């Protein structure tokens, strides 16, 4: 339900940033101009669209989740009144969310608010990216550990590990070749060549480090599968960064020619729609996956925000993998009561992730600091701020993975403990 609330507001923000939708509403809704005048929403409802409207709506959503973050601090059991509020009263919470989003339009001194709020959003959005990268590194280690442990029972897991590792490395190499072909040029795009060389070289370094004898001695479960996952993600971030960089032009045969651009941006409307659609799907998928996967108990423990002596069960926010028996309620519904001995995941951390996700949505939809000319149809067009943020994310991801490889060797006693 919280994810549904989050996605509804996100879709609303995307609609607000679309001039196409604004034009369609003005042309097809009867008495649109008169309705905007009665609502005091400006000419053609100008105050209800654009980056400022997205800032206000996301401010309301962020306040909603931040309130529940504070409200659920140190909730350890699902039997208390605060846990009951967290797990129920959906209609009232939906009304409260709507009220928070609408309240953003009535804030005083809005120019100053927008100036300050964008810096808060940038900090929160970048922190959301860091948490996302930490969870990715954790996922890579757990995948390799689970499949490696299966080797004790069935040797076919060796083949599964080798096959998946080979496929992932093939995807990473293929992505690198693709970017070299389309995002480099003999006469321009020096930064593209530099960062492609640096990022591919770092991927090679962490792959060799993962299978080095010194790392294997302290961390036997380390292998190429983790580095393959990280390499694919780094190549994706690199591609996304290069696609977000402002275009470069060189003079050839007396004409200015655009170089190092996405090959399907041929100026055709169909190509533009494809690029925009893929970008929106990736945006929604990454945000929703990051918010949901980071609310498991195991993920909370990995980020050191929730510690418990109970055996860990991998339980997400909608299903339970615990061994408790089913219970029947008075209404006859079968219920898996998965929090009998305590809250399985940290409620406050759950809401904190959605709070940061709200800020990330706000900054992404409004193209980070280039919000004045931001349109959702131009989400993948060039911006230096987006380029550097995504490129920095590559290096942070590689650093986090390298740190997880090296830390057992640097602190062997603490790691064993």
UniProtKB/TrEMBL annotation:
Q: Which InterPro entries match?
A: TDE1/TMS
Secretion signal: which residues? 1-23
Q: Where in the cell is it found?
A: Cell membrane
The processes (GO biological process) annotated in the record are: defense response to virus; innate immune response; phospholipid biosynthetic process
- Tell me what reaction this enzyme catalyses: a 1,2-diacyl-sn-glycero-3-phospho-L-serine(in) = a 1,2-diacyl-sn-glycero-3-phospho-L-serine(out); a 1,2-diacyl-sn-glycero-3-phosphocholine(in) = a 1,2-diacyl-sn-glycero-3-phosphocholine(out); a 1,2-diacyl-sn-glycero-3-phosphoethanolamine(in) = a 1,2-diacyl-sn-glycero-3-phosphoethanolamine(out)
GO CC terms, sorted: plasma membrane
Provide this UniProt record's keywords sorted from A to Z: Antiviral defense, Cell membrane, Glycoprotein, Immunity, Innate immunity, Lipid biosynthesis, Lipid metabolism, Membrane, Phospholipid biosynthesis, Phospholipid metabolism, Signal, Transmembrane, Transmembrane helix
Transmembrane residues, as ranges? 53-75, 87-107, 119-137, 157-182, 194-211, 223-243, 274-293, 344-366, 386-411
Main localization is membrane
Q: How does it sit in the membrane?
A: Multi-pass membrane protein
Q: Which family does it belong to?
A: Belongs to the TDE1 family.
Listed name of the protein = Serine incorporator 5
